[in-house]
Specification:
Elements lengths: L2 H28 L9 H9 L2 H14 L3 E7 L3 E7 L6 E7 L34 H31 L1
Antiparallel strand pairs: 1-2, 2-3
Helix pairs in contact: 2-3
C-alpha cells in the first residue's frame, strides 16, 4: 500500500473514531441514566460520571445495599462502624473521618477527593495532569506527535514531487 493511501486511510479511521467518541460524549452529557434506587448519592454520581463509569458505580452502590452496619463509636472527628453481610460472619471495621471526609463505605455524598477528573464528563476540558512531571511528559508527547505529523507530511510531499 502506498504511503499516501495509508495516510488517507489513517485519517478516515481517526475521523471515524473521533465521531464515535463525540457521539458517546453527547449521549453521556445529554441523556440521563436510569436511577435504580433513587438515592441522592446515585443521582449525584449520574451528574459527574460518564455512562460507563456511572454503570460501574451504580452496580457497586446497589451491591453495597446488601450490607448492614452498626455505629460502634462516635466522636467529634471520627465515627467507627461495624459492617457485615448476612449473619455477622464476616464483620469489617470502617472508620469515617469527618474532617477529611475519608471513608471506605457508608458515605452519604461523594466527597470531592473521590471525584477524579479523568472519570468525569468534563475530563476533556482543561488539563487533567496532577504534577509538573506529568505536564512535562504531556508536552514531550505533544512535541513528538507534531514531529511525526510533520515527518509524514514531508514524506507525502516528497512522494508527490517524485511522481
Amino acid at each position: 500500500m502506498p504511503l499516501q493511501d495509508f495516510v488517507e486511510q489513517f485519517k478516515r479511521a481517526v475521523i471515524a473514531r473521533r465521531d464515535q467518541e463525540s457521539d458517546a460524549d453527547f449521549q453521556s452529557n445529554f441523556s440521563r441514566p436510569i436511577l435504580k434506587i433513587s438515592m441522592n448519592i446515585e443521582a449525584e454520581a449520574a451528574k459527574f460520571y460518564p455512562k460507563e463509569i456511572f454503570k460501574f458505580f451504580q452496580e457497586e452502590l446497589v451491591n453495597g445495599l446488601s450490607y448492614h452496619h452498626e455505629k460502634v463509636t462516635n466522636s467529634e472527628d471520627i465515627s467507627t462502624f461495624l459492617v457485615w453481610k448476612k449473619d455477622k460472619q464476616t464483620c469489617r471495621i470502617v472508620t469515617f473521618d469527618h474532617n477529611s471526609q475519608d471513608a471506605k463505605c457508608d458515605v452519604l455524598s461523594i466527597p470531592p477527593q473521590y471525584v477524579m477528573k479523568r472519570w468525569t464528563k468534563d475530563a476533556k476540558s482543561g488539563t487533567v495532569v496532577t504534577s509538573q512531571a506529568n505536564t512535562m511528559l504531556l508536552k514531550e508527547v505533544e512535541i513528538a506527535l507534531k514531529n511525526v505529523s510533520l515527518d509524514v507530511v514531508g514524506q507525502i510531499k516528497e512522494g508527490e514531487n517524485l511522481q
